[in-house]
Amino acid sequence: MAGLKLVAAPYIYVCTRMRVRKTTLLPREEYMRMLNMNLPEITRLIGETDYKQEIDELGTTFKGIDLIEVALSWNLAKEYQKIQEITPGTLKQFTQAYLRRWDIQNVLTILRGKMQGAKTGKIKEILVPAGSLDKVVLDRLLAEDSLDKIVEMLKGYRMYPQVFIREYPLSKESGSFSRLENELYKQFYAEIIAEAESGIKGGKLFLDFIRLEIDIKNVKTLFRLRADTFEEDARSMHIQGGTLSATDFAALNTVKDQNEFIDILKGKIRQKSIIELLEEMRSEKTIRDVEVRLTRVQLEQMERMSKRNPISIHPILVYLEKKKYEVFNLRALARGKESKLPSERIAEYLVM
Amino acid sequence: MAAEVVMTVEMIKASQMGMKALGAGIAVGLTGIGAGVAEMAIGSAAVGATAENKDMFGLALLFTVIPETIVIFGLVVALLLLFV
User: Fold this and answer.
1) Which of A177, A222, A341, B58 could be A336's S-S partner, Cβ–Cβ 3.0 to 4.6 Å?
2) How many Å is the maximal CA-CA distance in chain B?
3) Residue of B29, B46, B39, B28 whose CA lies nearest to B67
4) Highest mean pLDDT among A73-77, A226-230, A249-253
5) For residues A351 and A296, is the Cβ–Cβ distance under 8 A?
6) Residues in B touching A16 (Cβ below 8 Å)
7) pLDDT digits 0-9 by tens, A263-276
8) Is residue A129 within 8 Å of A106, Cβ to Cβ?
9) Contact B52 A14 (CB under 8 A)
10) Residue A226: which of A281, A276, A174, A300 has the closest Cα?
11) Interface test mutation site (partner A, options B33, B40, B42, B64, max chain A beta carbons within 10 A)
């Protein structure tokens, strides 16, 4: 017993650090204040928080919205890398597996940027080197102009080669990477589920977290498909591993009546918090509103899980998610202000 | 027929003193282990909290030494055993 406790000490250390770090995230009041500010004021305010180092470092090179964009990306990447450094044992393994999604995002950003002929520097600004592909690898990929060569280079890394072999030619032909993106994320979720189920200690808790995320993603996709008039094959959008099966997912997509759709969906989902939210969705709402509410429920549920299991992977993952949404919020705020959108409109996009 | 062991008063007193010493040792030893186990978790959390926020140091230190009281109880019991 004493042996087990001694192993737990670094876990307690990291989980406490994450909980304290979570308290330093921007509260709702700060966002409300920022909504009444202009871009230079927002930049100054961000520069007084945890983003100070990045704002100071990049202040001479970038200005305005670019400064905020790059500073946020750098800070997020730095934060994620730091967490990977301090997490011990299986927590590190799970954290790295969870952060591998940024590899997909970075690679797709490079591919899309190159396809549209964007400048290398401009693409680099929005990359977040938080996954297994670090800055050096991403720079090497960015240096290549040919998409084929970029994909060829990826074969040496853990970047789902089978998916690329299967989907890349089709994506290249159609000029859209959306299908490739879907398949990459599906493979990503399949792999982290396999990792969580491989019998590693703490895997069950990691799996609960992933399942919640998949459920929320599937529900979001269903609402998006409903908002979209274009008829698509719903099965290809479904992510395996959650409580919704592919058959249920496809069947739900064919239901036209909103009340009937909510009733069936409530019967399929097991998460109580999602069921409660679905009840509020009976009246027609904008897709943006639905997505923000679902994200909020997801974060609240994750928070509850982390309180129930204080010494587990949960406090770490909750912090990773909350930090991600803080960066998303600040970016949305800055972009909204840059585009001179009214404050009420920007507030709709914030997850507070 | 086995030889009978004859114990003198001095021998009995020495044996009692030995038992007291053993009891005192166990009292301090076990409470020490208990305090160590308790402090391990609190100490890890305290160091983690202080690493993120330096202002937490005083409070974290206070929480970390609270299990020390268990050793003090053990020490008191040991002293009572040995000297009362």
Assistant:
1) A341
2) 77
3) B39
4) A73-77
5) yes
6) 44-45, 48-49
7) 888 888 888 888 88
8) yes
9) no
10) A281
11) B40
How far away is chain B from the Cα of A27, in angstroms, using its nearest Cα?
17
Its sign, for the CA torsion A269, A271, A275, A281, is: negative
Q: CA of A13, closest CA in chain B: separation in Å? A: 5
Give the span between the Cα atoms of A270 and A272, in whole angstroms. Answer: 6
pLDDT tens for residues A203-243? 899 999 999 999 999 999 888 888 876 666 778 888 988 88
User: Nearest Cβ partner of B48 from A5, A13, A24?
Assistant: A13
| Chain B residues closer than 8 Å to A5 by CB | 37, 40-41
pLDDT of residue B44 exceeding 70, the answer is yes
B41 contacts A8? CB cut-off 8 A: yes
Looking at residue A132, what DSSP letter applies?
S
| Per-domain boundaries in chain B | 23-83
Q: Which two tokens stand for residue B84?
A: 């009362």
Domains of chain A: 1-86+312-352 (1.10.132.50), 94-202 (1.20.1690)
Q: Do B47 and A13 touch (CB under 8 A)?
A: yes
Please state the ipTM of this predicted complex.
Answer: 0.81
Spell out where A58-114 has E strands.
none
Query: Which tokens sit at A345?
Result: 């409109």
